[in-house]
Structure formats: C-alpha cells, structure tokens
Amino acid sequence: MDDHIKSLFKRYQEGTATAAERQLVETWFESHYGQKGRMLSRNEETSVFEDLDARISAMLADEPVITRKLNFRWMQVAAMFIALLGSGLFIRNKFSKKTIQPETFTEIRSLKGEKKEVTLKDGTTVFLNSGSSVFISSRFDAQKREVKLSGEAFFQVHHNASKPFIIHSGKLQTTVLGTSFDIKAYPEDEHVKVSVATGRVKVEKPDAAKLYAKALTHNQALVYDKVKDSHRLTTVNIDSISAWRTNHLNFDNASYEEIARMLSRWYNLDVTLNANHRDTKRYTLSFFNERPDKVLNVLSALTGMTYTMNGRKVIINPKNQF
C-alpha cells in the first residue's frame, strides 16, 4: 500500500502522473491546504510534499503495536485514499461532461473581383461570387448543417437525410437535404433570390413563422423584397443565373443601381452613379470574360450613358429619360 501511495506522489512531482492521478492529488491539496483556485509555488509544493511524506511515514511506521492498532492505521490510510478517490472521481465526472460551448461562426470570404470554391467537411461544395461570405457554424455537421450567407453563392449540397442543410440569408432561411441551388443575398440589394437547379428547397422566414415555399424545384425561384416584406415565385433559367461561376457577367432586367453594384463587385471598382439621373429603364445584357472598360463601352453604346474611368474609380452618368 505504501509503495503505491509514494509512487503516486512521486509521479505527480515528476510530472508523469495521468490527468486522473493529478486530480486525486490536487483534490487532497484543496481539502487539507485550501489551495483551490491557484497553482502551488515550488516552495509551497516542496513543503506540502514533505509534510505529506511525514504523515504517510508516521501512519505506516513499522512500530511494535498490537495487530488491532496496526490494522486501524492501515484503515486510516485506506479510508483517506478511498475518500480521495471518491472526490476525484466525482470532480472528474462532473467536469468531464461535455460543456456546451457557445455557437460561433467561421467566415470564408471571396473578395471583390474574385470568386472562390470551397468544400465543407460534409462534402458540400460552395461557390462564392465576388464580394460574398459564407459563415460556418461551430456546430456544423453535429446534429444539423448550418451556415450564414452574405452575398451570392451556388451550393451543391451533399445528401444527408438525417442532417438538414440550412442557409440563413438575411431574414430568409433555406432548408435542403441534398440539392444544388443559387442564393443571391447581398446586404445592399433590395431583393434576396433563391433559384433551384436540382432537388427541392424549402424557403421560410423563421422569425415570423412564415413558410414561403415548401418545395421549390428545378428552374423555380423565390424572390423576396426586403423593403416591402413580400415575396413572389417565378420561373428562371438556372444556367443563366449561375453562369457567373464560369465568368459570365449577366445583367438580368437590371436597373442602373444594380448594374453599378454588380460592376463594383465583379471588377473591384469604386463605382459612383450620378444621383440626379431619371433613367428607370431596366437592361438585360451578357458578357463573357470582358474587361471593365469593354463592358462600360457596350453599356454606353446601348443606353446612351457616359462614364469616366480613372484607375479604379468610375463615374457613370445615365442618359436622362423624359
């Protein structure tokens, strides 16, 4: 018995004790020396161990005592370590229970002028458009798969019926099991658009308990108006909507404000739009891998607008319509 006890404290002093063994010894310190909440200094540790060695030696001294007395001393030592073992196991069990950590999100960002493709740990692929971010929950793939989106992304979700894939984009929540779809949700835009390529997608507004679409399917889209807090369902060409992944810049019934924002994100330009314009027309145009000046020249020829470009600064002056 004494060899085991001395061996335990020797391992503790040498730093070779297991976590459970260290906990037993430190619990003993707390109960006898009031050291809870702080580490012992080297001098304090030496003093404690000298005292401990003396106590153990005294209790285990090989002195001529009657058998009943000797057994009582062994019972004292055994009782102390049984109690210590019980306290240690209680503390270990108490603190070994998995503490629920607060949920955090890791950001994956695609800067203006670039696009990014990432694969999540569940096998889902996310294509990020320019100026977009996806935020991955620290609890991702535990019981469910949950992310936040700011900007535009095309998701190819790995199928897992037991763990729904949930995307938060502003006030909307999109839930899928395994499918591919595009979500456009830039904070500065007036609309959030969810367009489906394959599979089925559910779109809702959880804070208001509103279910907008139970099962969007191929070439269907939901467009949510953030200003009016309304939505509409429409038919789309998903290949055209997601063509940005292959470097196609598409303006689909876009206003000048939308064109300016898209040019800014796509080419990483500082685009200023003349606030006094009265052109309310919308334009549908498509470009493939063109330089920004080429795009601006085409827009100028088709719409009558003028522009100035100085480095990365662009000023657009739409032609006023009367």
From TrEMBL:
Domain of life of the source: Bacteria
Signal listed as a keyword: no
UniProt cross-references to Pfam families, sorted A to Z: FecR, FecR_C
GO molecular function, one term: sigma factor antagonist activity
FecR protein domain boundaries: 107-202
InterPro entries membership: FecR (IPR006860), FecR_C (IPR032508), Ferrdict_sens_TM (IPR012373)
Every Protein FecR C-terminal domain range: 249-316
Keywords for the protein's UniProt record, in alphabetical order: Membrane, Transmembrane, Transmembrane helix
TM region(s), chain numbering: 74-91
UniProt protein name: FecR family protein
Organism listed in the record: Pedobacter westerhofensis
